[in-house]
Amino acid sequence: MKAVPIIVLGAISLLGVGSLVMGDEDEAGRGWWARYKTDVPPVRNEKYARECGGCHMPYQPGLLPARSWAALMNGLEDHFGDNAELAPEDAGAIRRYLTENAADHVRQGRSAGVARSVPPGVAPLRISETSYFRHKHDEVPTRLVKDNPEVGSFSKCEACHRGAETGSFDEHRVTIPGHGRWDD
Q1: For residue 146, what are the CA distances in angstroms to 72, 75, 105, 159, 177?
Q2: Residue 26 within a domain
Q3: Pairing status of strand 180-181 against strand 175-176
Q4: CA proximity to 38, closest of 112, 124, 116, 129
C-alpha cells in the first residue's frame, strides 16, 4: 500500500526531468506533450509530394485508413473528376507509402482518432467524410469555408491550418481567410 505514493512520486519526477530536457512549451505556448498528441506524421516521401502535391496539398497518409488510400490509388483515372494516372511503378511506390503510413497503421496523434472514427470495411475517399473530421469541424459555418472564395472547400486544409503542410492541425493556429483567427 505504501508503494503507490513512491511510484507516483517517481512518475512525477520523471515527467519533471522530461520537461527540462524537452522544454515546457511548444511554439503555440502549450505543454510540450501537445505536439505529440495532436499532430499527424508529416509527408516524408518525395515522389508522393511531387506527384500529388503538384495539384493539391499532399495530404498526410495518417489522415485516412489504408483501405481508403488503396481505393484512391485504384481510381486515379477518375480522381475527383480529373485523370491523375501515374506510371505503374510510381503508382505502386506511392500506394505502398500511403498504405504503410495510413491512420490505421501509424496510430499516432490525430491518426489514432481518424482510425477509430472509420468503421471497419468503410473506405472514405475524402478526409472530410470521416466522423473524426466532421466532429472537429462541426462548429465551422459553411459561409466561412464553402462560401469563402479564399477557401472554397474543406479539402483545402492549408487555407486555414497554418501548419497543415507539416502535419500540424493545431486548432489554436487556425486563421480563416477573410475572417481571422478561429476560436470555438
Answers
A1: 23, 25, 32, 12, 12
A2: no
A3: antiparallel
A4: 112
Q: Residues 36-65: pLDDT tens digits?
A: 445 899 999 999 999 999 999 999 999 999
Residue 56, exposed/middle/buried by CB under 10 A (0-12, 13-18, 19+)? Answer: middle
pLDDT over 90 (residue 29): no
Q: How far is CA 23 from CA 13, 17, 122, 163, in A?
A: 15, 10, 40, 20
Q: Is residue 20 part of a domain?
A: no
Name 149's bridge partners: none
In a domain, 3, yes or no: no
Number of domains in the chain: 1
Output b/e per residue, 85-111; b: 16+ Cβ within 10 A: ebeeeebebbbebbbebbbbebebbbb
Q: Is residue 7 part of a domain?
A: no
Q: Which of 70, 56, 71 is nearest to 98 (CA)?
A: 70
* 126: exposed, middle or buried (Cβ count in 10 Å: 0-12, 13-18, 19+): middle
pTM of the model: 0.78
Structural domain range at position 154: 38-181
Those residues with Cβ within 8 angstroms of residue 3's Cβ, 6 or more apart along the chain or in another chain: none
